[in-house]
Design goal:
Elements lengths: L2 H13 L4 H10 E10 L6 E9 L5 E5 L8 E5 L11 E2 L2 H8 L13
Antiparallel strand pairs: 1-2, 2-3, 3-4, 4-5
Length: about 110
């Protein structure tokens, strides 16, 4: 994948967010996709990951990876070199954003996938 492919994928994910305030908030954290290589805690493998969002004041970033855990959107510490734990990975960019950065209200019945 290229940076342009990842940017397109991020735009698609944003269109799936039904709460406009949350979609707008996520856009404030977006960065130009940056390719990083991260290690696997369970073996010698390394994986290509794309940083897509970063907190201004903090150590957490949102990344996309096609391989590694079964879900593609992750929250990892920027200063670490690994993919983290499976509980840090989500089905959608929105769910990763909610778990990492969102401080606003969630709709009734909202569940992270």
């Amino acid at each position: 994948m290229t940076s342009a492919d990842i940017s397109h994928l991020v735009r698609e994910q944003i269109t799936l967010i039904t709460a406009e305030d949350r979609a707008l908030a996520l856009m404030d954290y977006l960065v130009e996709p940056e390719l990083h290589i991260r290690t696997w805690n369970y073996g010698p493998e390394e994986f290509q990951c794309w940083v897509v969002a970063r907190a201004d004041m903090g150590q957490w970033i949102l990344i996309y990876a096609e391989e590694g855990f079964s879900d593609s959107w992750g929250i990892v510490c920027e200063t670490d070199s690994d993919l983290g734990m499976d509980s840090q990975w989500f089905t959608t960019l929105d769910d990763a954003f909610v778990a990492a950065f969102w401080t606003g209200p969630l709709p009734p019945g909202y569940e992270v996938n």
